[in-house]
Specification:
seven-stranded mixed sheet, 18 strands, binds pyridoxal-5'-phosphate, Aspartate Aminotransferase, domain 2, three-stranded mixed sheet, elongated, alpha/beta
């Protein structure tokens, strides 16, 4: 992006095409039209150009034909808060700053005044001190902090063993290895997830077999699992999406009847509870992840939990190149990897776990603030939390737009427009079965998992982190309401959508 006046300004003798070129080169959504004395005469936005072209206007017509002359301008003395107020109230993304003689001096963009990040890690001075201590200790890896983190974590989840690894993905991979999931096996899982959950069986050349999701919980629909079971099925891999624990009772029941392993992907659900039990405590094994957007972070990192002694020992060995887990032994007894967590990460994990309840409470409070404001906005569906979830650990805050009113493309436009207001959002998640890897490998196509596809075309993950302020939540919600009405200007047409 450039604010070079030679690029962002076009002379009034120029054409619409020249204005498009100016916008393209500057990356700013408008070109500023100037006269012979270089005084600001008007503005042409990308939206004005789009409308003019749709109305059949020739690109070689004069830029003055479509420029707006009733301009909102500011001077160098206008305060940032005044600028921000004008921009947000009037839905303006840029304001030209003019000199006393009317010539253009500069331009101020909304995104320069306001940025609400999608996520942000929350590291306190206590955590910084914990890392410093490790740095001056004899251990940077395989030391006491790993043991402490594992012990704290296993206790918290209520499982016998916790094995720290360097990512949630590594954890899922070791779960595959530990239960001998291999070529020729099938693993039943959800296409609505972060791609790592479906990739894990692929690491061992097993096939991920997708089952569509429940439209409320957004987790795998247990009612559709049995029809996908074949003699090759070895495991079910439910994902606790966005922190929502999958419907574990029927899943465990199916697994028991068909003699299947349950591998829980709890990477997003640290602290959530389903019918009084913690996420990660249901299956034969579970994996958690700790990237910086998670409830707690170890920068990169993950952990496996299990009650099975043999599996725990095998996972400990495999994370460390397959070295035997016996004191003093240097024998490599199985094929392993370097999936070790560092002591620095573990120290971060231990310190963050000390305030886990405080973190979850804060996230819950922010989710409630969002719920309160968003439930008043038509065509917005706030996240569902059913009665079986007696504690929701919010990983992200994901709304859905009414798909009858906003197409996938319009949803993308909403995200882009929010970005221009400094509200950083994203779609979450694109359907895994439609990723090129999966289309190419398994021949999946659009329409195979209709609920996943519909939901995935409607989701918007709003900014969400421990330190999001109420004022920021209000700004996000107001911006969303404005942007929705720009794209679908008659909210009365909305159906009061609630899936
Ligand atoms: C559902 C799910 N599974 C697996 C992972 C993988 O975790 P990591 O990024 O730590 O490898 C993530 C991470 O974001 C996730 O959200």
């Amino acid at each position: 992006m450039t604010k070079d006046l030679n690029i962002i300004c076009v002379h009034r003798s120029k054409t619409i095409k020249d204005a498009i070129n100016s916008i393209y080169q500057s990356g700013i959504r408008a070109a500023f039209v100037i006269d012979d004395q270089k005084k600001l005469a008007g503005i042409v936005t990308d939206g004005d150009i789009r409308e003019a072209v749709l109305a059949g206007k020739n690109l070689n017509s004069s830029v003055t034909d479509i420029m707006i002359t009733s301009l909102i301008t500011a001077t160098k003395d206008t305060s940032p808060s005044e600028l921000l107020k004008t921009m947000t109230e009037k839905s303006i993304y840029q304001i030209p700053i003019v000199n006393p003689d009317g010539t253009m001096a500069d331009v101020v963009l909304l995104i320069e005044l306001k940025q609400v990040p999608l996520s942000k890690q929350d590291i306190t001075s206590e955590e910084v001190e914990a890392i410093k201590e490790v740095l001056s200790s004899p251990y940077l890896t395989i030391g006491p902090k790993i043991k402490e983190f594992e012990s704290v974590f296993a206790d918290y989840i209520g499982m016998k063993h916790a094995i720290a690894v360097n990512s949630g993905t590594s954890g899922l991979h070791l779960a595959m290895r530990a239960f001998e999931i291999k070529d020729g096996n099938e693993v039943i899982t959800t296409p609505f997830s972060f791609i790592a959950s479906a990739n894990a069986p692929l690491f061992e050349r097993a096939k991920p077999v997708f089952v569509d999701i429940d439209e409320k919980t957004l987790c795998i629909d247990p009612a559709k699992i049995e029809e996908k079971i074949t003699p090759r099925t070895k495991a079910i891999l439910p994902v606790d999406i966005f922190g929502y624990v999958a419907d574990m009772d029927p899943i465990l029941d199916i697994a028991k009847r068909h003699n299947l392993i349950v591998i829980e992907d709890a990477c997003e659900a640290l602290g959530s509870e389903y019918k009084g039990k913690k996420a990660g405590s249901f299956g034969n094994i579970a994996a958690f992840g700790f990237t910086p957007n998670k409830q707690i972070t170890t920068a990169e990192g993950g952990i496996i939990v299990t009650n099975n002694d043999e599996v725990a020992e095998l996972c400990r060995s495999m994370r460390n190149q397959g070295r035997e887990e016996k004191p003093g032994s240097l024998a490599y007894t199985t094929l392993g990897y370097n999936y070790r967590m560092t002591e620095l990460s573990a120290a971060l994990g231990v310190t963050q776990m000390k305030r886990i309840e405080e973190i979850l409470a804060r996230r819950s409070q922010i989710a409630s603030l969002y719920n309160e404001r968003l439930k008043k906005i038509k065509n917005v569906h706030i996240p569902y939390v059913g009665p079986e979830i007696n504690k929701m650990s919010w990983f992200v805050y994901v709304i859905q737009l009414n798909p009858e009113k906003f197409s996938r493309q319009e949803r993308n436009e909403v995200i882009a427009k929010l970005g221009k207001r400094g509200v950083n959002c994203r779609d979450r998640f694109p359907p895994i079965h439609l990723e090129p890897l999966y289309v190419g490998t398994f021949g999946y196509k659009a329409g195979d998992f209709p609920i996943t596809e519909r939901v995935s075309g409607a989701t918007i993950a709003l900014p969400f982190h421990n330190n999001l302020t109420e004022e920021e939540v209000i700004y996000v919600c107001d911006s969303l309401e404005k942007v929705l009405s720009e794209i679908n200007p008659d909210p009365r047409k909305g159906s009061g959508f609630r899936p």
